[in-house]
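Re: that backbone. Tokens:
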């Protein structure tokens, strides 16, 4: 399935991912393709997902409008402690063991809107979003809110196929404590064109696995995403993932790996800058704040006991974000 030989991006190969058609009436084929992908590398494409190409292009266009603003304007909507708003270049350090500095990317977080004053807004990851001024970017908020809603429906459709692949009821992840009250985070991303150099610890995005259940990723036509199927290999072998127009690249997160007792893979991935400007849109889907992530009954046995203790989603996510993002006090000092 793989075309071996070093790619232009420095990877050992370009991987070929399974493609899941959400419009297909053959659910068993979809389950089979998805299960194979989850066992193999934890990455696959999703097509015919219901979000029109026209609207996807509008979301990318609006994303570019924001990132092309002057830095002092973007800093007015700097991310807060709830992880809503703008993240500057070098703000995030995903792989401190190999990175000399932070990621050469900037981003913008948009979560589920929880009004200030609502008791739920007191919890980490819940609260009001931070938005650019409407007169600065007219229509921007409305576009992003619509995409957030539509992407969450895609994620729920994918989660139903994952549930079937794990021998669970299709609606297993639809429960209120899971995706019924999901911590769903849209993140717009912009790579300015810095050329990555792993030998010098410079990356567009350092090697990492995602934290939650699944991630949906829409990209432009510029390559850069790479995956490592065996993180323990010496040396690690990296494979390019090709962009596919109109498709989401979907990958599994660490919580699903914990739920599945490592049967399904949360795969290490990174982004190498090639010298070309690159835009992508990531949609991270985690269960609710209070969800207890513990080994699924279909994924354990006497010979294969649970590998991880149960952990609340809030606890796990809070620690992972703290480990990878700059202290906000750093920006306060810069502005005084």
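Recovered sequence:
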């Amino acid at each position: 399935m793989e075309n071996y030989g070093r790619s232009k991006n420095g990877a050992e190969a370009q991987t070929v991912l399974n493609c899941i058609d959400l419009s297909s009436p053959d659910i068993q084929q979809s389950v089979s393709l998805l299960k194979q992908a989850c066992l193999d590398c934890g990455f696959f494409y999703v097509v015919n997902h219901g979000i029109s190409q026209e609207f996807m292009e509008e979301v990318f266009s609006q994303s570019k409008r924001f990132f092309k603003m002057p830095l002092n304007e973007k800093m007015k909507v700097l991310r807060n402690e709830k992880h809503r708003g703008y993240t500057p270049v070098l703000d995030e350090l995903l792989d401190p063991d190999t990175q000399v500095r932070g990621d050469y990317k900037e981003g913008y977080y948009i979560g589920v809107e929880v009004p200030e004053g609502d008791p739920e807004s007191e919890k980490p990851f819940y609260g009001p979003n931070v938005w650019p001024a409407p007169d600065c970017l007219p229509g921007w908020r409305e576009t992003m809110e619509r995409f957030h809603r539509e992407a969450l429906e895609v994620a729920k459709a994918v989660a139903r196929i994952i549930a079937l692949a794990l021998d669970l009821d299709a609606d297993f992840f639809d429960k209120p404590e899971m995706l019924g009250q999901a911590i769903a985070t849209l993140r717009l991303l912009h790579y300015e064109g810095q050329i990555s150099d792993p030998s010098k610890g410079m990356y567009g995005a350092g090697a990492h696995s995602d934290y939650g259940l699944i991630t949906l990723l829409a990209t432009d036509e510029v390559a850069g995403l790479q995956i490592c199927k065996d993180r323990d290999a010496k040396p690690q072998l990296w494979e390019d993932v090709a962009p596919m127009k109109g498709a989401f690249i979907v990958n599994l997160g660490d919580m699903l790996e914990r739920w599945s007792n490592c049967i399904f893979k949360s795969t290490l991935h990174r982004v190498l800058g090639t010298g070309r400007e690159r835009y992508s849109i990531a949609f991270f889907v985690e269960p609710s704040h209070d969800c207890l992530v513990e080994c699924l009954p279909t994924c354990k046995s006497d010979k294969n006991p649970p590998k991880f203790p149960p952990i609340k989603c809030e606890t796990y996510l809070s620690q992972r974000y703290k480990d990878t993002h700059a202290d906000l006090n750093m920006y306060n000092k810069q502005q005084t």
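Residues 140-165 form the longest helix (26 residues). The radius of gyration is 19 Å.
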